[in-house]
Here is the input.
Amino acid sequence: MLTILNAVKRVLVGRPFRNDRLAHTLLPKKIALPIFASDALSSVAYAPDEILLTLALAGVSAVAISPLVGLAVMVVLLTVVASYRQNVHAYPSGGGDYEIANVNLGKYAGLTVASALLVDYVLTVAVSMSSAAAYLTTAVPSLHGEQAVIATIGVVILALVNLRGIKEAGSVFAVPTYIFMASIFGMTAVGVFQAATGTLGEAPSAAFTIVPAEGFDQGLVGLAGAFLLLRAFSSGAAALTGVEAISNGVPNFQHPKSKNAATTLLLLGMIGAAMLAGIIYLANATKVHIVLDPATEFLLNGNPLPEGYVQNPAISQIAQTIFGASSIPFYIVVAATGVILVFASNTAFNGFPVLGSILAQDGYLPRQLRTRGDRLAFSNGVLALAAGALVLIISFDADVTKLIQLYIVGVFISFTLSQLGMIRHWGRELKLAKDKAVRRRMIKSRTINSIGFGMTALVLVIVLITKFEQGAWIALLAMFILFLIMWSIRAHYDNVAKELAVDEDSSPRALPTRVHAVLLVSHVRKPVLRALAYARASRPSRLDAITVDIDQEETAHTIADWEKLEIPVPLTVLASPYRETVTPIMDYIKQMRLDSPRDLIVVYIPEYVVGKWWEQLVHNQTALRIKTRLHFEPGVMVASVPWQLKSSEEAKNLQDVQ
Here is the structure.
């Protein structure tokens, strides 16, 4: 069984890499951009939809101001990008927002940022994959209703790709990302040309009348209208998710790491803002209408839409309007968008494992997350992220609108705290700097981070106010639970470290008074004789053999075989009136500890080494129970003496061949 699993692993993941191959996994900017920026770039596939959908609650007139909302989102995006360029220069180790908050604001702030980022990475995968599934159903309508299944398959495939290593994943993702960028810019250019020449048509949904939600019959007026406007802005702010991934991935860049990461951030900001502007402009120009429930919120000539109407995303409607529903460019745009949404999850698959490794090194997560796997990727982190995303996708049935309400609260918590941490960082550095040119650069960086802090803090407040009841409370609850879990893990590691610290009582000079060896005997067979030989070779102060009287006839047979071989070790028979095996042995060992508390007791247990998984079910079960109980007894050691069955030799030969 182990051999089969190992073979499957090699097929899926590939041959393991040596440690010296780590340098070859570093990324140039042209590969780093699609790997770390695909999440932020792909947000143009759903951020405009969420703006339009939210504004549609107040009717058609409210949808017309979507460009202003988009402009506000772009201003925040460019400000955050400028702020994070300072971050990557100051903290290039890959700790990102967590390290900045931890160093400058304290461990509570650091752990808050870490929990927010971990939750947000999981949501990134769930939202991107669910959105990709929605775009796939646009091209293949027969798949409508199977979005959760499609998204689940996508997560599994992406996890396998990332288990093969970061550079290999980057090579896979680079071309589709650039195709997506080219298709969006190409569609925007053609759409702007058509608008300038008066040939731009209207979207398929332009003819639909939007039924305003209760309380919004007069459009965006009063306090309710202002609240809805802020809610639309907070939904569009999903375009900023993924910006922080580059600061966490600085160690994966080629040298000079900080400079290359900062350049990639600049490219991300410029490209992302331009794409978002183009999509929102064209959505407004073609009169794209998107609502939460088309069956009740759309009217056509005063009547409800025909049953079975499927609402397509904004990019799909724009491409259909510009190129035609059956044209090759239309399918290229839709396919490229669907693919980039799948690959957008890769940003999280690079950020989550690195952050998990750093947290594991600091003792906040299990230490299994700190080490790299066969392909020099943080394999356990990849698997943990995939598992979390699958839970969300299945729980919310891959509904993008529901998932996105949970989405951005975490990332803006990390944005805000990291910018506050950077302000403190520059304040501390300015006190030490003497050179005027250096001080000017620091003052400039602090100013940029101060603006970033003010803007992200404002957005965070807006997000919390507008999205709390919509589902943001779930994300906040998950962050709080994760915070407590990580704090508990750290407390556990600290307590264990104190417990295991060397003191006077544990000095290497403090030896036990005697060594008392105990051999467990069931039947007098080769494994028992081997264990007896090992026990005698260790020259203990005393050696006893014990057997439990479960069946009188078998016990008598064991005693006869023992005497027949004239073994110079006394065999003690333990009574077991209730036909138990473990309890009499434990009582015997405990009595020995009471009689001689300073003696070291070594229990020798013969065990079979098997080669087939089902053989383990029929062997060693009693030995396993005994070992488990003995491990809780102080002053007792367990010595497992293996006996290799023939099936184990066959399994070993197969492994040697591989």
